[in-house]
Amino acid sequence: MTKTELSEYELQRLENIRQNQELLQSLNLGGGTLAPAKVVVVNKGRAKTRSRRSEAKPRARADKENGSASSADDSDYADSKHGADEAESSDSEFGSTGKRRARRAKQPAMRWSKRLRGESIEGEVTAAEAQAIETNDFTGVLQTGDERFGSSAAQAVHVTGHYSGWVEPGVMQRLGIQGTAAAAWESEGGGKFSFADPLGTGKKVTKRAAGGQSVAKYVASKLLKKNPNSYFYRHTEPGVEQWTGEWTEEETQVFLRVAKEFGCGDKWGLFSTYIPHRVGYQCSNYYRQYVIPAGWIIDENYRIDGSGSAVYVGSHRRGAR
């Protein structure tokens, strides 16, 4: 076939590819991560793709959960799963006459994901790791904290994955919260707890909440004195600002001190009352994403994978017997 000159659409497309490559280099994503398609131009201005970027095969995921059995003092809603934060960019439209060809020759969407940046995705494990979790045989696949950190693990806080404390005494006194979970529940009307009826009123929770907030956050806001674990999982003490972003050194030291005294791994709402500007789910996330991978706390319910990420292998994962 006789080659022809590049059409306006194809010139624009190659320019887009060039700009995308420059952007990748400016973000230090490494060369060749997204190899451009090789194009051979034939008569009538049609482009034929000879090679494309290979698609990564999806890997098995091992579910990780930090909740405990259903009870009045531990009705944390499961953490939302934190998959890779991805955005996509695609070729621009080039007018109605080029749309059909654009759809045919369109480049695969760019994925600005942790995987492309060479970072691990929390909770994502290989098929071998998933099998190890299922069989409870982690030999050669996942390491315990002691195995991972060697002699330095002796300096870490060791926990069994359970928090044995209650609301921080100062918070409890200021807010008039009872001294035990059972007393707190009964003092605010009692009732039978269930995930369908976390307020214990005998009425199922509606699917909509006032003000556009999530149902879980709305329900938690009603449980300050009745079920403080649920309340503080999503809310700070009334009048106290919630911080976001990096944790301070002081907050980290308090985290480790409380874990050493009371343990940690569940009831994150109660745990967070010792760290005023954080809520329970923030403590849970910080624990999985930073504390365990750093070796500050060794939790028997977690293993460390080859990339250094924490993998939950405890009994509260989905499908665990």
TrEMBL record:
Renumbered residue ranges of the record's region Disordered: 44-117
Domain Myb-like: 245-291
Listed name of the protein: Myb-like domain-containing protein
Basic and acidic residues biased stretches: 52-66
Pfam families recorded: Myb_DNA-binding (PF00249)
CDD domains: SANT
